[in-house]
Amino acid sequence: MGNRYDRFKALNEMALGEEFHSPGRTVTEADCVLFTGLAGLKAPLFVDAEYSRVHGKYGRRVVPGLLTASFTAGMMEDILGPFTLAALELSTLKFTHPLFHGDTIHCVITVTGKTDTSKPDVGVLTIRAQQFNQDDQQVFELTGKFLMLKDRASLKLP
Predict the structure, then answer these.
(1) What CATH number corresponds to the domain at position 103?
(2) Is residue 157 part of a domain?
């Protein structure tokens, strides 16, 4: 099943195929209100319960896809943490099932690649991040590349 809540590994501590499981969190009404307001999203399927009930495919409001992706980004940070220097690429964003208010989500991050750079203490981590709801139904997936410190000794804390 992989490491549960194993946070903050340097690149050289990760193995190809290794899985990391994030802590869970429940998506709240407040999450959606804050995000749609901040992003300026006004689509009725996100903000209008009555419209969504009558006209929506699911009979209720859905969580915006970019908020779903943002939750995944936060959960990846729980795993990658201070060894991450930069996000280089986020690709293949797939919204595989709707996310709803009240769903409880978690992510599984799988190491799919590791490459060296010209700097001896820095490498590139390639991952697949999958987000699942409380029924273990995948709701989102992305692949990404991150510039990472290779070793714990490279992390210089004040």
Answers:
(1) 3.10.129.10
(2) no
